[in-house]
């Protein structure tokens, strides 16, 4: 699916929200969605980064985006309801959401998972997505066909030593997608997961500090499956978990926790 290259108007007239849009894969997804005609709503924690993406979108000739500064760590149900009301008022529709923001948390032995650390990772990677999905669903249903894409990981499908809260949060993400997709069948709103696979970003560098970044695909190189799931070519796809880099051989580098223990 990496070689999916749709026409530049694939997402024309669609309004798409991207969480964690200021950096890494989310930044690139925002730019790619915009390049394919979408009006992108940029949600993230660091306003400066969101403003930079906003400027890049305008510079590349994309529709004028919007910015929602929000720290998912502290956001409440009311924040998501208010956000939905603003989107309804400003755009009158929402055709897609890419839940991309994520926290790696601390890697280390299961017995060392701290309660605070667990809560932080679960808050950003799981609970915020559940609350935001609940709030956005009425708007998405009114805008159907609509697409919800959650971001998973290889460690969200097969547990791996020392990946603690992060891996468990990604299993929860897969589960949330499956439950929701089953409920949404025939509703005109579809829900799927994407596992980007090893990708050259800040998070990847934190997890594998000894790895050569040049050995990894860039976010721009994995956009095919993101565009596919957001656009109308995937209308019949619901409840699936797609590996963006299904062709990539298994990672052999050791994550930080393992490397540190050697
Ligand atoms: P980055 O760390 O590069 O970017 C993460 C983004 O999420 C940043 O824009 C960050 O904002 C935002 N974010 C983090 N915490 C919060 C928060 N509390 N509130 C709002 N926004 C927040 O990560 P990647 O681009 O690498 O990862 C994107 C997704 O892909 C994640 O879900 C990750 O788990 C997943 N993934 C990545 C892989 C990879 O190899 N890169 C492999 C498998 C899965 P800010 O910059 O302002 O902190």
From TrEMBL:
An example molecular function term from Gene Ontology annotations: oxidoreductase activity
Keywords: Oxidoreductase
Pfam family, one: adh_short
Residues covered by region (Disordered): 246-262
InterPro entries: NAD(P)-bd_dom_sf, Sc_DH/Rdtase_CS, SDR_fam
Biased composition (Polar residues): 251-262
NCBIfam families per record: PRK08945.1 (NF006509)
Family indicated by similarity: Belongs to the short-chain dehydrogenases/reductases (SDR) family.
Annotated protein name in UniProt: YciK family oxidoreductase
